[in-house]
Every structure is written in structure tokens, then in C-alpha cells.
Amino acid sequence: MSIAKNTICLWFDKDAEAAARFYAETFPDSSVKAVHRAPCDYPSGKEGDVLTVEFTVMDVPCLGLNGGPMFKHNEAFSFQVSTEHQEETDRYWNAIVDNGGEESECGWCKDKWGISWQITPRALMEALAAGGGEAKRAFGAMMGMKKIDVAAIEAARRGD
Fold it and tell me: pTM for the complete prediction?
């Protein structure tokens, strides 16, 4: 077994395996590497329950820990997924939201386990990096969006 030097540990109530499998099915270069069961009873579970799940999300090593209900996810942590075009943006956004998730503002959404995701088209990042009026117009357009509309960002960048 090879463990990455730096791994993101995500605390789940009890659904780490379901979340990891959803991520592996939804995002490229993602997989469930291993499922480890508790060797004995622990405060939030019993011997034999899934305790940890090793997985990757777009090549980022993660560990899902079924630690119980005492800690909840919030927007202070999010995965940011850079997309190439509207179709890819729609595919990831809809997969998360349509699987019990919820929309938020400015390209953010939250999956049904409470993990926040930023589904961010490259067109938006390029517009913001351009600076000046282009960035200001694109940023203003983004502020009124939930899922990012690539065509609207590009139009705003041009000043249309």
C-alpha cells in the first residue's frame, strides 16, 4: 500500500464510501483505491463498519473518514474544478446538483454530503486574469450567476 505524502482528509458522518464512488463516477482521473473497515467498535460505529476510504478526485489524493455527525462541512473548503467549455461546466454542475446537491452563487454548488465545489470555466479565470475593464465586467456578470454561463462571461469581457 502506497500512501501519498499529502492527502486531503474529508470527514463524513457515515457516507464516505458513497461519496467517493460518486466522485469516481463523475470526474475523470478519479477512483476509489481502498475501503478500510473498523477493526473494533468506535464512538461513531461498530467493528466492521467502513471507517476510511482512500480515493482520488481528478488525481488529488483524498481520504474519507466516517467520523460521525459532530463535524459538518462548510464553504471554507471546496474543490475547484476548471472546465474547458459550457458542456463540461453543465455536466459537473448538473451531476452534483441533480444528485441531491444544491446550487449556490458564483459557480459554487454543494453536493449532498455537504462538500462545496467551484465549477469554474477557464473563460472566467482568463477574463479575471486580464485585469482592467475586462475583469471588472466579467466579475460583475459572474456575481449575478449561480452556474457560470460561459457565453455571458465572454460577452461581458468584450463589453457586449
Answer: 0.93
